[in-house]
Design brief:
Layout: E1 4-12, E2 16-21, E3 26-30, E4 40-49, E5 54-59, H1 62-71, H2 79-89, H3 91-99, H4 103-106, H5 114-124, H6 147-151, H7 157-160, H8 168-181, H9 186-199, H10 205-215
Antiparallel strand pairs: 1-2, 1-4, 2-3, 4-5
Length: about 220
């Protein structure tokens, strides 16, 4: 089972992350952080093995990894639902909501209704405090790659992905065009796009589109 990975980011769009490890193996991981391509990242991994596939979910600390694995033991909660809950509510809010039987807070997560919130409290009330035992110390999501380290990357960016667009105005224009084709109005998209560009390290239009669509 894979529990921890460290390597160079070759692709990241706020949903999927491809991490090239020192062995030359590139792992595709569910990761809701947008990380700079070419940077280094270390993260805890929950390795979910299914009958027909295997999935890797990335976390910045051990507590969230353990909490994710605890959430997946709840009846009706799959890995993607558990990961979405953590991304939208945060680990500490989930722990507090379960301990205080706060269904209203749990229902703020997409797809969690009254029945699901009740099930979460029923199944986890006696277990959730154990999550506090695990460290909440953050791993290094991003670390600038030195020129020497960059030369050691066995799979180059040109081999793994299309050229990176570096012009911010061009990224916004391309993302705006894509959103307009999906039926969204320009005056609604532009402020969101500019806000995200200021807050995140965006290098591709598709990264920006993904994050904009999460907020509209």
């Amino acid at each position: 089972m894979i529990g921890f990975l460290s390597g160079t980011v070759v692709f990241s769009d706020g949903q999927d992350l491809i991490l090239n490890t020192a062995s030359g193996v590139g792992y595709q991981i569910f990761c809701q952080q947008v990380l700079a391509e070419g940077s280094r990242a270390t993260l805890y991994i929950s390795h979910v093995i299914k009958e027909a596939s295997q999935e890797l979910y990335g976390f910045s600390n051990l507590r969230e990894k353990k909490l994710f694995e605890l959430l997946t033991t709840v009846k009706g909660v799959g890995p993607k639902s558990a990961y979405s809950m953590l991304a939208n509510l945060g680990g500490e809010n989930i722990i507090t909501a379960v301990m205080m039987e706060n269904k209203a807070l749990l229902k703020k997560a997409p797809g969690v209704g009254d029945k699901a919130a009740s099930q979460l409290i029923l199944d986890l009330k006696s277990k959730i405090a154990k999550a506090k035992m695990y460290s909440s110390a953050m791993t290094k999501w991003e670390e600038v790659v030195t020129p020497v380290a960059a030369q050691d990357i066995q799979v180059t960016m040109t081999e793994m992905a299309e050229p990176v667009v570096t012009n911010e105005n061009q990224i916004i224009q391309d993302a705006l065009m894509a959103c307009k084709e999906l039926g969204f109005k320009e005056d609604k998209i532009i402020p969101l796009a500019q806000k995200i560009m200021n807050e995140a390290n965006i290098q591709r239009a598709e990264q920006l589109v993904h994050l904009v669509l999460k907020e509209v």
